[in-house]
Design goal:
Layout lengths: L5 E5 L5 H10 L5 E5 L16 E5 L14 E4 L15 E4 L15 E4 L12 E7 L13 E6 L15 E4 L10 E4 L3 H13 L10 E5 L15
Parallel strand pairs: 1-2, 2-3, 3-4, 4-5, 5-6, 6-7, 7-8, 8-9
Antiparallel strand pairs: 9-11, 10-11
Length: about 230
């Protein structure tokens, strides 16, 4: 088998538009190394093929947004909306992520080794998100499907207005949002969580986590619940 070659794109010499244009034309299975990203916005967005993209430094807003099939690794922090609206593939942030990580994402796996700011997983629709550290307030807000795993602590209003997304937290939860409750951690949930942690290359003990989900009291409007919305 021929050795794989890696294409290097130096963003001190080329623009984010040049990078994205090259990635959109790339053949599946090819490897890309992005140097000197300098926190530029919209890196590696809209990818639709199985590329391996390594960003060697911090990324700005919406890195790896709308990803399909590609594996994108950021060796640094990521700005607002990393992996927003991802459909499939894997995005890994080796540092921490700003607000709205994985927002509205329908599938794939987002791993954040550090912390994630406010609204991590907002309106998530099927993505799996594993955060190695803490998450900010209103994470999993209006989460419709998928799993959010928090290996640290969670901020205020976790899972506010949650639908059917499942949330696992190892540390402390500052407060739960409207219609979010702690649920029994049964054997199938421990097994599910163990699989998610393995996918994220983590060795946390799944039995140390607690599970949260929707109380399903706000699905249909009832005047008695009007103050809870």
């Amino acid at each position: 088998m021929a050795a794989l070659t890696t294409t290097v794109v130096d963003l001190s010499q080329e623009s984010a538009r040049d990078l994205n244009s090259a990635l959109h034309k790339a053949s599946p299975g090819t490897s890309w190394h992005v140097t000197h990203p300098g926190g530029a916005h919209n890196l590696a967005v809209g990818l639709t093929t199985g590329l391996d993209v390594v960003i060697d430094g911090p990324a700005g807003y919406y890195c790896a947004g709308m990803n399909q099939r590609a594996t994108v690794t950021v060796h640094g922090n990521a700005g607002t909306g990393v992996a927003e609206n991802m459909m499939s593939g894997t995005v890994r942030v080796r540092g921490s992520a700003s607000q709205s990580a994985g927002a509205t994402a329908h599938g794939g796996l987002l791993v954040i080794d550090g912390d994630a700011s406010a609204r991590c997983g907002i309106s998530m629709k099927g993505v799996d998100i594993v955060v190695g550290g803490d998450v900010g307030h209103m994470s999993a807000f209006m989460g419709q499907a998928g799993r959010l795993v928090v290996c640290g602590d969670a901020g205020d209003a976790l899972g506010d207005s949650l639908y059917e997304a499942r949330v696992y937290v190892r540390g402390k939860v500052k407060s739960l949002g409207a219609d979010c409750v702690e649920k029994e951690m049964r054997a199938e949930h421990v097994a599910e969580l163990a699989g998610l942690l393995k996918s994220a290359d983590r060795d946390d003990d799944p039995s140390a986590f607690r599970r949260y989900g929707s109380a399903r009291e706000l699905y249909h409007f009832r005047v008695d619940n009007s103050s809870s919305y």
